Amino acid sequence: ELENSQPLSIDDVPEDVIAAVLAVEDAEFYSHKGVNLRALVRALLSNVSSSGARQGASTITQQVVKVEYLGGSERDGRYKLLQIVYALRLEKEHSKQEILERYLNTIYFGNNTYGIQAAAEVYFGKKVQQLTLIEGAFLAGLIQAPSSYDPIRRPQQSRRRFAEVLDALVEVGLTTATEAEAITVCLDPTAPEAESEQCVGSWQIPEVVRTITEKKITRTHFSEEVKSYLLNKSNILGETYQERYNKLFRGGLKIYTTLDPVAQTGAEAAR
Fold first, then answer.
1. How far is CA 154 from the centre of its chain?
2. Is the four-CA dihedral 156, 157, 158, 163 of positive or negative sign?
3. Residue ranges in the chain assigned as alpha helix (H)
4. How far is CA 34 from the centre of its chain?
5. How far apart are CA 33 and CA 85, in angstroms?
6. What 8-state DSSP symbol labels residue 215?
7. What is the pLDDT of residues 87-115, one digit of tens each?
8. CA distance 46 to 56
9. What does the alpha-carbon distance between residue 265 and residue 162 come to, in Å, rounded to a whole number?
């Protein structure tokens, strides 16, 4: 596989982790219909009046559209309009849980990880079912800018981002200001407070990529031809190449063919 992607069911993701992702990425996910108009207006006013960092306003539904349908498209006015139209349509055709599951399985977390299961293993060496609220919140914080907040290569920026994430958790009541402050104080291992008794053994951002046990994939002429057919010669998986690519490599599909592995191996050996 080209990417580390391990699709899973939304039922396998702890409720605390889902709550943390929503708090950071789309707090009004369950109340909007694909587009958050208030956030759009708020971001527009902020971006017009400020010369600093631009605010985004994309909902989780819009991010699914961006990844699955608009990858590679030119970022112009038409792009944003299409994103809105597709998001509204997606909300009409699928439940919130289905959209959230697609999001958690396809969103990029940096370090070649697509989806929260792959991210849980790379950053924490865990299955997603074992993630804590704080670990889930940390992963949610990476989504906005995985390269900028990469804990492996940019630990200082990652720590600053995580402090913002903790504020978001406090805002929605997932943790208390006291608990968040205790974690924040101990985040920087070079700070004087890091050597205090309260910080010994405290939670730290992951600064090393964990080892993952990868499945061995045996490629054959037959399997490569099937992959080529699905990507380039058929629209079974989508109308555009990007849609087909996302479905094939990130969709968690089970593809059944006429391949007889024993006969195929014999044929290739004979050839």
1. 19
2. positive
3. 15-25, 37-49, 60-68, 77-93, 96-106, 116-124, 133-142, 155-171, 177-185, 221-228, 241-250, 261-270
4. 18
5. 11
6. P
7. 999 999 999 999 999 999 989 999 888 89
8. 10
9. 51
